[in-house]
């Protein structure tokens, strides 16, 4: 009755992000539609090209009937009404300003997506898989790879069965 998300590591390609001196520390936020945003507790120094930074952050989204009906209903809605933007977990790579420059804002620099519908269609969870991170200013440019695990198949199957029963 839960979705388990793990943000394992991040590497950057040669891009505007890699060469931007103002971007020094990065953290990752994960969001399921408008419900829930979780972020890695630490921001880590930006990796140099070819290096990976390791977050090893794990989180669970509970979608049980008793305590989390709204999230569960949302999953049903998502499975019944296909829409590109609502059926994905969105990972946002965020630049965290250095401590001595706290007047600067956090800036979204890239996005990566995992489709929950695709997990159900393919009947397999995503385990330690690299997904593309797209530039926030140019969504056709890949700026890096985010290694994630998303275990959701079990609960998606259960919710799908409920949809058929309704």
TrEMBL record:
- Gene Ontology cellular component? photoreceptor connecting cilium
Q: Which Pfam families match?
A: RPGR1_C (PF18111)
> Domain named RPGRIP1 C-terminal: which ranges?
1-162
Which InterPro entries does the annotation name? C2_domain_sf, RPGRIP1_C, RPGRIP1_fam
Q: Please name the GO terms of the biological process aspect recorded for this protein, alphabetically.
A: non-motile cilium assembly; retinal rod cell development
State one molecular function term (GO): thromboxane A2 receptor binding
Q: Which residues cross the membrane?
A: none
Q: Source organism's superkingdom?
A: Eukaryota
Known PANTHER family for this protein?
Answer: PROTEIN FANTOM, RETINITIS PIGMENTOSA GTPASE REGULATOR-INTERACTING PROTEIN
> What name appears for this protein in its UniProt entry?
FTM protein
| Recorded name of the encoding gene | Rpgrip1l
